[in-house]
Amino acid sequence: MKVDTEQGFADTSAAVAGSNEFPVKMNGRNVNVFYGEKQAIIDVNLEIRERQVTALIGPSGCGKSTYLRCLNRMNDTIEGCRVTGEITLDEEDVYDPNVDVVELRARVGMVFQKPNPFPKSIYENVSYGPRIHGLARNKAELDEVVEASLRGAGLWEEVKDRLLEPGTGLSGGQQQRLCIARAIAVSPEVILMDEPCSALDPIATAIVEELIDELRQNYTIAIVTHSMQQAARVSQRTAMFHLGELVEVDDTETMFTNPSEKRTQDYITGRFG
Ligand SMILES: Nc1ncnc2c1ncn2[C@@H]1O[C@H](COP(=O)(O)OP(=O)(O)OP(=O)(O)O)[C@@H](O)[C@H]1O
Predict the structure, then answer these.
(1) pTM of the predicted model as reported, rounded to 2 decimal places
(2) Does the beta carbon of 145 sit less than 6 angstroms from any atom of ligand 1?
(3) Which residues contact 5 (CB under 8 A, 6 or more apart)?
(4) What's the domain count of the chain?
């Protein structure tokens, strides 16, 4: 990844200059989320643009993860959680009752905070999704998908001789890359990452951050992070949340050097959070 050594920002010059040219992949309009009576997201409008990394930042409890989970309807799995407003993927409403949620989650994959490989072999962790989605016609094709996904996640060289060993036997950083391989094995269009590096050491974090930068060539990414340095390093756009509201969204460099809102300024300079 190219980094501007003075500022520490990802080299996003092309992305920033033409950021309005990146088509909108997912769009949230007037999104509200309630857990029972409690409102966790308040009237959020947020575009996630194609082949960019959008970082969701803000103090603990501000609703970043809740918003992320709306994008592939993971909140459906939480009892008492209710989402209103509209979220679209390629302009199609993801909350339309006719949407097949399993299919949606293949198109909009997710990587969680804690690496969570299945208690199965490395091979099975990656091949499970393509198998159930019928993406391979035979073993040879499945082998190809597994290899391509592990290569895509930067893990192939480390695991190619131990594909039948348990995924849980890998290091934390390798397990997280295995989860990324599992996500990309079903050819998603969008990958949601909820603090994917928070359980990793600095070296594993750097490897995953580099991987995220490569993945944006092929995928649209939204990442929740507590680390402003990470947001600056990996994202092209940053959305700042506070108390369930979207405070502002802008090109990452602008957000970190010249934010419009005082709340963003206060957060990024460590005055609260
Ligand atoms: N399953 C749940 N049931 C009830 N309330 C919840 C649930 N999940 C989150 N909340 C509440 O919704 C609000 C937003 O939480 P959320 O986890 O989305 O914030 P966050 O910004 O991701 O926080 P953190 O950075 O600490 O992970 C918080 O007040 C939280 O307590």
Answers:
(1) 0.91
(2) no
(3) none
(4) 1
* CATH number for 207: 3.40.50.300
Which domain covers residue 67, as residue numbers?
Answer: 13-117+191-268
Report the separation in Å between the CA atom of 141 and the middle of ligand 1, taken as the mean of its atom positions: 41
CA of 41 to the centre of ligand 1 (A): 10
**Would 140 be classed as within a structural domain?**
no
As a whole number of angstroms, the distance between CA 168 and CA 2 comes to 32
In tens, the pLDDT along 146-167 reads 999 999 999 999 999 999 999 9
Question: Which of 32, 44, 62, 198 should be mutated for ligand 1, with most atoms under 8 A from CB?
Answer: 62
What whole-number distance in Å separates Cα of residue 111 and Cα of residue 100?
Answer: 20
Q: How far is the CA of 153 from the centre of ligand 1 (A)?
A: 29
Element containing residue 40 per DSSP (H, E): strand 38-49
- Rg of the chain over Cα atoms, rounded to whole angstroms, equals 18
Q: Which atom of ligand 1 is nearest to the CA of 68?
A: 18
240 lines ligand 1 (CB under 6 A): no
Residue 121 near ligand 1, beta carbon < 6 Å? no
Q: Spell out the residues 6+ positions from residue 104 whose beta carbon is closer than 8 angstroms to its own.
A: 72, 73, 89, 94
Please check whether residue 27 lies inside any domain of the structure.
Answer: yes
Predicted interface score ipTM higher than 0.95 = yes
Write the pLDDT tens digit of every residue in 107-121: 999 999 999 999 999
Kindly give the interhelix angle for 172-184 and 202-215, rounded to the nearest 10 degrees. 20
Distance 145 CA to ligand 1 centre (A): 36
